[in-house]
Design brief:
545 residues, alpha/beta, Alpha-D-Glucose-1,6-Bisphosphate, Chain A, domain 3, binds alpha-D-glucose-1-phosphate-6-vanadate, 32% helix, seven-stranded mixed sheet, TATA-Binding Protein, binds cobalt (II) ion
Amino acid sequence: MAKVLRIETTPFEDQRPGTSGLRKKVPVFQKRHYLENFVQSIFNTIGGLNGKTIVVGGDGRYYNNEAIQTIIKMSVANGAKKIMVGRGGLLSTPATSHIIRKYGLDGGIILSASHNPAGPEGDFGIKFNTPNGGPAPQKVTDAIYEETLKIDHYFILDIEEIDVSTLGQIQVLDTVIEVIDPVKDYVDLMERLFDFDAIQDLLTKKGFRMIYDGMHAVTGPYAREIFVNRLRAEKGCLYRCDPLPDFGGGHPDPNLTYARELVDMLYGDEAPDFGAASDGDGDRNMILGRKFFVTPSDSVAILAANAHLVKAYRDGLKGVARSMPTSMALDEVAHDLGIACYETPTGWKFFGNLLDAGKITICGEESFGTGSDHVREKDGLWAILFWLNIIAKRGKDVREIVEEHWRRYGRHYYTRHDYEDLDPDKAHALMDALRVRLRTLPGTTIGDETVESCDDFSYTDPIDGSRVEHQGIRVFFKAKGRVVYRLSGTGTQGATLRVYIERPTRDNKQLDQDPQAFLASLIHAASTLAQITERTGRSRPSVIT
Ligand code: VG1
Ligand code: CO
C-alpha cells in the first residue's frame, strides 16, 4: 500500500528560474532533494495541489524518466485529483501547452533544457506552465524562487515505479494517473489550423521533396504522424526522428551551426525543395529552401504577411509581437496591415498576456521561435506547417517567397553573435560598463558608424502593468541600424553574451548581399563599443546565427 512520506529538507540557494525555467547540469538535479525542493515549491506557490489536475512530460532527455517518476509520486502525495503523463514521459513543449488548454488543467510541468545538450554531464531543466498553457509569468517564477529559499519539507509517495509506457488510467490513493498519447491531440489541432489537403498535394503530387530533421529529440513521433501518416509524404523525409536520451550526442539547436548535416543537404547537389528542423523540446524551428536559409526574424514577418492564405488566420490578425532583439521586419508588415506590433523582452512568457487579451495573433523571436494564439508556447512544427501551407497556396519556392517579401517590405539584414562560456564576472562587467556610458555614447563615432541614441530596455506589460528592467542595451545608429547587447538567461555554464546586429535597406539593388559583409561596419562598431576583445579575451564569437 502506497504511503505518503513527509521528508525534511533544507533550501538550495540557486533555484531562481531564468528565461525559460530552471536549467542546471544533470549532476546538480541529481543532488538529494534538489528536484523535489523545486517541485514542492511550485506546488506551494500555486496554493497546493489538492484536488487539482496537472500534466507532466518532457523532451526525453537523460534524467527525464527519473524526474517523471518523482513528480508523479509527489503529485499523488500532495493530493492531486489527476495527473496526466505523456506516454514514455514524452511531451513536446507546444503539445503540453495545448493539453493544458484543451482539458482546462491547473497547470503543467515541462522537463526540458530545450536545445541544450543532454546526457549524464549535460543539461536538464524544469518549467511550470500556468492554466493559460503558457510559461509562468515573472511574478509566478519570482514567487517559486522565494518558496525555494524557505522550503523545509516536501511530500512524496513510498511506492514502486509507476508504468508510464502504456496508455490508460491507474488510481493511487486519491489520484488518477492517466497516461496519454502525447501526439494525437496536438496533431488534431494542426489539422484544424492548416489546409492538410493542399499540403498533402504539395508533398505527394508535384514532385516536391522535403526533409525534416528531428535532431533525435522529442518531435520525431510528431513529425512521423504529421508528415508520413497524415500527409502521406515518403518516409525518407524523416531524418533523425527517433528520440534519444543524449540526442545522439548532438546539440539539438536548429541553426546553421548545430543542424549542419541538414544545411549541407539543402545546399548540396540534388538538394530537396524544403528543409526544416526543430529543437530538443519542439518549440523552435529552422526553415531552409534549396540553397537558402530563412532568418527567424524574416520568417515571422513572412508568416504574418501571408497569414490570410491559411485557414486558421484567413480572417486577419489582431496584432503581432516580437521580442525586442528580433529584427523589425515584422513591424513593416504590421504597419502595412494596419495592426499593432508589440515589442516585448526576450522570453515567451512575455507574450502570454497579449495573447490572452486578444491583442495579438502571431508572435516570434529571433532565436528560431515562432507561434500564435493556438497555444501559449512557440511551436516548431506549427511554423513548418505554416510555411508548407504558404508554399502550397502560392506555388512558389522558399527563395521566391522571401525575395518577393524583401522587394515589397525591404530587407532587414540581421545577425546574432554569441560569445559563450565567458567568465560571468567579466560578462557582467562588460554590461555594467556599457550601462554607465549610456548617457555619453550618443555622438560617438566608430569607423563609418555614429551612435544616435541608446537605452537599457525596460517593459511595462500593457495588460497587467507589471514592469521589468534591464532587458538588454539597445544602441541605435545614425545610418539606420541597431545593436543590442544582453546576457543569456538559459545557459548552465559561465555566461553568454549575445550581440544582435540589424540594418534595414529598401534599396532593391542591395537585397542579395552576404549579411556578415553587409553588416561589417556595424559588427565592428558593436564589438569596439563594448570592448569585447579587451574585456573577454575573445576575438570572435563562438556561434553566429
Ligand atoms: C534564449 C533565447 C530566447 C528564448 C529562450 C528559450 O534565451 O534567446 O529568445 O525564448 O532561449 O528558448 P536566452 O536568455 O538564453 O537568450 V527555448 O527553445 O530554450 O525554451
Ligand atoms: Co526549445
